[in-house]
Design goal:
alpha+beta, 23% strand, 5 strands, 118 residues
Length: 118
């Protein structure tokens, strides 16, 4: 997730359609977040296709708990990742909103561990 977080700190061009820059970042995020989640025991991961400057999806941890996540529009709302429990991979309303900081890999990792291991 280090490269993903570093790239997220850069400005993104605004457009009415997906830019090559956003699509490259989405691919990087998908690759690094998958690897990150697998380190914490997740083998069931669904990341949405590129949308409009955001990213969201679901994952399940080894304890069986499903989680939904979302990073809002990365052109201006990129300081946190919203994360919450979900009943399944179709539950978009889920549990309480919690946020993982995206300003450093250390903060992101600590927030992830503290959020998913209450």
């Amino acid at each position: 997730m280090q490269k993903t977080i570093t790239e997220l700190q850069k400005p993104f061009e605004s457009s009415s359609s997906c830019t090559p820059e956003y699509l490259a970042w989405h691919r990087l995020f998908k690759r690094e977040f998958n690897a990150f989640l697998k380190k914490y025991g997740s083998n069931d991961i669904q990341i949405s296709k590129p949308n409009h400057f955001d990213v969201s999806g679901f994952f399940k941890l080894k304890d069986g708990q499903s989680w939904w996540f979302r990073i809002e529009d990365i052109r201006w709302s990129k300081s946190t990742m919203l994360i919450r429990t979900a009943k399944d991979f179709k539950d978009y309303t889920g549990g309480h909103n919690r946020f993982l900081r995206l300003n450093s890999i250390e903060n992101f990792t600590n927030d992830f561990i503290n959020t998913t291991n209450p």
